[in-house]
């Protein structure tokens, strides 16, 4: 039995050892699963190169062609001696879209609003809305209208417009010269961590105390949200991506100077090694070739290597770095044509917003307005050229002549009144071709109608069709215009629900994450402190775009109707009724002004909010004239009483003084008489008793004088 147990123990120990070895192997395998630097470099390089190939070979040629049609570049089928004119249907159509889109998104200060997720977030949502709109409209290096215009135009021409939003810290340097500083002031400057004393000179002051003159350089770092338009050829995305949410790679590639890289925190000696003046500035990309005039590849920068350019790629990749089997979003930055990694850190969002006017289902990129109109422009240009050629041939006909019977030199001279020498009559005759350009007008009108059906842009949409206006009622005209604007409304809705929503969500995330101190900003003519640290970074985003004049007109009518009902209820039931308040009516008036296009509706310029109204201090009521007369009479009576009392008081004082004087004289006489009696007869007289009696009588007189006339005697 003992042997059997021993064998079992040995078996158990062997299994334990094997399990431990297995655990060690699993641990080692986990370590091996972590991606090392070489593997990461290889993954990043392959991913970027594949995205570059996808963008440069698949997307850029089509987008470059669209840009050429928009600019009216030659079509490539021009013939010498024939008309080279062409129509500008692509540009005309896109330029017709842009004003409406810009009015929709720039016609109000609050195109996008934040909606609270919890009741306690209501005030924070309103503050966030005001603050983010302030950041976009007043806190950018470039006008927000220009930024939006660039993105919208890229979307209409090339199918995709991109905005990038980042938190950017900038350092400002200010130098000041300060004189006659005492020791305390100098110590305060030295204690300031943002101030650097670059020069110091000390002298002895008038009182023997040291005074200093210093030069101070103060450096301050401030962080702001910056939004910029990204050229479509600079943005890379993996070819299998459908949206930002599932994209394995979204990258921003561009050429920037060594100086810019140094300002971003990179070492100069390292970055200058990646500078190049080779022909790869164009990204081998047709879109970039159109901008090649901006990048002279043979530019000689002389002795300033900081101006040389470096290929810089800021990539947001989902890659499993830690080997846990789950890909994490990381920001990986590379330099040079070999995409050498210089930065690798976790990322919590992809800071890009895309605008697409014709999204393709299940695809990252979509179509453009140029795609809908390029073939029409090409056909119309061919018809226009043929019509012009026919007109030229009919107005300047060819000449037929009998060879040897007319002067060729005279025939080649087309000056008016020129003489043609002929050997015989009829040797020279015009070879007329009839003008057939009228037949092209119907085709041109058909092509215009085709363009209108594709894009929704027509003369009726802009109110420029006189036939439509003269032959229809106002209601029919409005319906026609509204129908023509449906395409614009659809594009605006796609822009707002996709690009604008993502832009505002991203900005809210940035300010709640990076702004760690209160900032005072000017909103509606008031200076308001903003501290986003307490805000919910995941608040919902809602859009308030004004879609079309028809929808705007209906909204205005509805608001005016609501305002009329509110006014009626307030008049009938007063301001304390449970149905409508003064604040409700103010909200309606503000909405009416915003629907009318007034961007300063909420500034208090037109109406004052009941919440901000401060009633003036209450003035005391004006006294009654009769009451004033009574008060004057009472004052006169009181003055007479006071005068009489003063006179009586004087009389009492005089009576007391006279009584005292008389009593003192009588007392002195009595004492003198007593002294005489005592000296003559030896009789004893009680002088003290006489003085006490006199003093008693004196006090009695004073008491009577104080009581005044008409008062009862207390001793009677």
- The portion of residues forming beta strands comes to 15-25%
Distance between the termini: 140 Å
Number of helices: 19
Main sheet: strand order: 5-6-7-8-9
Shape assignment: elongated
Question: What number is the mean pLDDT?
Answer: 80
Secondary structure class reads alpha+beta
Helix content: 40-55%
Rg estimate, integer Å:
49 Å
- What is the tally of beta strands? 15
Major sheet size, sense and barrel closure: 5 strands, antiparallel
Unreliable spans are 1-6, 20-31, 294-298, 712-716
Explained architecture:
By secondary structure, the chain is α+β, with helices and mostly antiparallel strands. Among the domains are: 1-33; 551-615, no CATH class; 625-707. Helices cover 49% and strands 17% of the residues. It has 19 helices and 15 strands. The protein has helices at 2-33, 37-71, 89-106, 122-138, 144-158, 183-191, 258-263, 268-271, 286-290, 369-395, 408-412, 438-455, 466-470, 474-484, 486-514, 548-573, 582-595, 625-681, 687-707; strands spanning 112-115, 161-181, 195-204, 210-230, 235-237, 249-257, 309-319, 328-335, 340-346, 352-355, 398-401, 428-431, 519-523, 526-530, 540-543. Strands 5-6-7-8-9 form a five-stranded antiparallel sheet. Strand 13 (519-523) and strand 14 (526-530) form a beta hairpin. Helix 10 runs antiparallel to helix 12 (438-455). The radius of gyration is 49 Å and the shape is elongated. Mean pLDDT is 80; it is low at 1-6, 20-31, 294-298 and 712-716.
């Amino acid at each position: 039995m003992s042997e059997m147990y021993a064998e079992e123990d040995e078996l158990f120990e062997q299994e334990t050892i094997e399990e431990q070895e297995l655990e060690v192997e699993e641990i080692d395998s986990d370590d091996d699963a972590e991606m090392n630097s070489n593997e990461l470099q290889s993954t990043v390089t392959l991913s970027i190169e594949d995205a570059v190939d996808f963008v440069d070979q698949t997307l850029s040629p089509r987008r470059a062609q669209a840009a050429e049609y928009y600019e009216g570049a030659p079509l490539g089928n021009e013939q010498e001696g024939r008309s080279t004119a062409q129509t500008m249907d692509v540009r005309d159509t896109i330029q017709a879209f842009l004003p409406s889109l810009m009015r929709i998104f720039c016609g109000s200060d609050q195109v996008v609003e934040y909606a609270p997720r919890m009741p306690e977030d209501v005030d924070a949502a309103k503050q966030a809305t005001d603050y983010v709109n302030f950041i976009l409209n007043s806190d950018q290096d470039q006008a927000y209208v220009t930024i939006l215009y660039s993105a919208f135009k890229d979307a209409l021409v090339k199918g995709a417009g991109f905005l990038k939003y980042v938190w950017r810290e900038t350092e400002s340097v200010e130098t000041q010269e300060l004189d006659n500083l005492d020791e305390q002031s100098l110590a305060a400057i030295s204690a300031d961590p943002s101030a650097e004393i670059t020069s110091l000179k000390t002298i002895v002051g008038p009182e023997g105390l040291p005074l200093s003159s210093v030069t101070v350089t103060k450096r301050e770092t401030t962080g702001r949200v910056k939004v910029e338009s990204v050229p479509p050829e600079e943005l890379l995305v993996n070819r299998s991506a459908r949206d930002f949410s599932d994209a394995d790679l979204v990258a921003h590639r561009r050429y920037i100077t060594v100086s810019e890289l140094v300002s971003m925190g990179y070492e100069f000696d390292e970055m200058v090694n990646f500078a190049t003046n080779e022909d790869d500035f164009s990204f081998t990309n047709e879109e970039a070739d159109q901008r090649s005039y901006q990048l002279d590849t043979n530019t000689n920068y002389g002795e300033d290597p900081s101006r040389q350019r470096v290929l810089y790629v800021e990539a947001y990749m989902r890659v499993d770095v830690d080997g846990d089997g789950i890909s994490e979003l990381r920001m990986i930055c590379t330099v040079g044509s070999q995409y050498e990694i210089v930065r690798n850190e976790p990322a919590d969002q992809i800071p890009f917003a895309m605008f697409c006017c014709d999204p393709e289902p299940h695809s990252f990129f979509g179509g453009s307005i140029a795609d809908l109109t390029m073939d029409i422009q090409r056909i119309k240009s061919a018809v226009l050229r043929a019509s012009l050629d026919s007109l030229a041939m009919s107005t300047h006909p060819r000449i037929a002549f009998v060879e040897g019977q007319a002067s060729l030199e005279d025939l080649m001279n087309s000056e008016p009144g020129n003489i043609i020498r002929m050997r015989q009559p009829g040797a020279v005759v015009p070879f007329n071709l009839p003008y057939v350009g009228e037949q092209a007008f119907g085709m041109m009108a058909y092509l215009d109608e085709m363009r209108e059906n594709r894009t929704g842009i027509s003369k009726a949409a802009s109110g420029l069709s006189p036939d439509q206006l003269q032959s229809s009622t106002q209601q029919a005209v409005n319906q026609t215009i509204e129908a023509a604007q449906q395409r614009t409304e659809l594009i605006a809705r796609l822009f707002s629900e996709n690009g604008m929503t993502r832009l505002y969500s991203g900005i809210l995330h940035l300010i709640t994450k990076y702004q760690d101190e209160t900032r005072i900003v000017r909103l509606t003519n008031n200076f308001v402190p903003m501290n986003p640290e307490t805000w919910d970074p995941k608040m919902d985003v809602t859009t308030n775009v004004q879609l079309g004049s028809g929808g705007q007109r209906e909204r205005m009518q509805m608001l005016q109707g609501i305002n009329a009902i509110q006014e009626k209820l307030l008049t009938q039931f007063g301001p304390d009724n449970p149905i409508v308040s003064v604040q409700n009516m103010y909200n309606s008036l503000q909405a009416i002004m915003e629907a009318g296009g007034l961007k300063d509706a909420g500034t208090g310029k037109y109406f004052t909010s009941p919440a901000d109204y401060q009633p003036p201090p209450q003035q005391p009521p004006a006294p009654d004239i009769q009451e004033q007369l009574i008060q004057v009479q009472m004052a006169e009576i009181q003055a007479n009483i006071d005068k009489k009392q003063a006179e009586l008081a004087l009389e009492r004082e005089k009576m007391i003084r006279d009584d005292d004087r008389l009593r003192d004289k009588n007392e002195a006489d009595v004492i003198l008489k007593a002294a005489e009696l005592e000296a003559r007869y030896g009789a004893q007289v009680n002088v003290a008793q006489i003085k006490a009696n006199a003093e008693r009588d004196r006090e009695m007189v004073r008491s009577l004088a104080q009581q005044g006339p008409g008062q009862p005697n207390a001793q009677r």
